[in-house]
Design brief:
Residues 107-243 form the C1q domain. Residues 54-70 have a biased composition (Basic and acidic residues). This is ADIPO protein. This protein is mainly β. The protein has a domain at 113-240: Jelly Rolls (Sandwich), CATH 2.60.120. Helices cover 9% and strands 30% of the residues. The protein has one helix and ten strands. Strands 1, 2, 3, 4, 5, 6, 7, 8, 9 and 10 form a ten-stranded antiparallel β-sheet that branches.
Length: 243
């Protein structure tokens, strides 16, 4: 078909679909209104809760706030258990010496001692030898006028003597309370100087006396002393009786 009639038919075919689309759009109901050109349907049921979303990223730290006011002091707590001792610390420096204290009362030092020497030659036999050269006799327990030691403190004593022998033999004895305790004998060698000595431990009671004397009738009396030779006698308290 050609000519004007054909053009008209072609134009109608193009316009018809457009009109149909417009009509279709006009009759669609508005979902936001209960009715649109006709009665709307009943509301649907609420849907199920959706799944939780994923955690978001951590935010940045905010600025530090101002210091708050001090709170009221709380009650005192119970005492805790004693802890384990710590390690010993380093040793400190020595302190300064303290002042000397006063002398105590009631203290008593037991002392008794003497040391004497001979000044005269050939002492008489059978009597105490008088040692008149005093080396030590602070307590005055030795009597130079009698040649005897007098015990004032009971206890254990030590006695010793060392005698120079010259011109004749020597035999001496140490006496305690008129009884000979020990004897010492030395035979003189002519043209020579010899020595005789002895020592002993004795327990003495208060009032006991100890001395030396030549034993015999005078033929054993060679005890000697001069400016270069001494004959000595000594004794001292070892420990007293305290009971």
């Amino acid at each position: 078909m050609k000519g004007p009639a054909g053009f008209l038919l072609f134009s109608l075919l193009l316009v018809a679909p457009h009109c149909t689309e417009v009509a279709t759009q006009e009759v669609q109901p508005d979902p936001k209104t209960p009715c649109a050109n006709w009665m709307g349907g009943a509301p649907g049921y609420p849907g199920h809760n959706g799944l939780p979303g994923r955690d978001g990223k951590d935010g940045k730290d905010g600025q530090k706030g101002e210091k708050g006011e001090e709170g009221v002091q709380g009650p005192r707590g119970d005492q805790g258990e004693i802890g384990v001792p710590g390690r010993e610390g380093p040793r400190g420096f020595p302190g300064y010496p303290g002042q000397k204290g006063e002398k105590g009362e009631g203290a008593f030092v037991y002392r008794s001692a003497f040391s004497v020497g001979l000044t005269e030659r050939a002492p008489h036999p059978n009597v105490p030898i008088r040692f008149s050269k005093i080396f030590y006799n602070e307590q005055s327990h030795y009597d130079a006028s009698t040649g005897k030691f007098h015990c004032t403190m009971p206890g254990m004593y030590y006695f010793a003597y060392h005698l120079t022998v010259y011109l004749t033999d020597v035999k001496v004895s140490l006496y305690k309370k008129d009884k000979a305790v020990i004897f010492t004998y030395d035979q003189f060698q002519k043209n020579n100087v010899d020595q005789a000595s002895g020592s002993v431990l004795l327990h003495l009671s208060a009032g006991d006396e100890v001395w030396l004397q030549v034993y015999g009738e005078g033929d054993n009396n060679g005890v000697y002393a001069d400016n270069i030779n001494d004959s000595t006698f000594m004794g001292f308290l070892l420990y007293p009786d305290l009971d």
